[in-house]
Amino acid sequence: RKAVADRLYLSPHTVRTHMQNVLGKLGVHSTLAAVALARRAGVGPVDQRVG
Question: Which of 17, 38, 13 is nearest to 28 (CA)?
Answer without folding.
Answer: 38
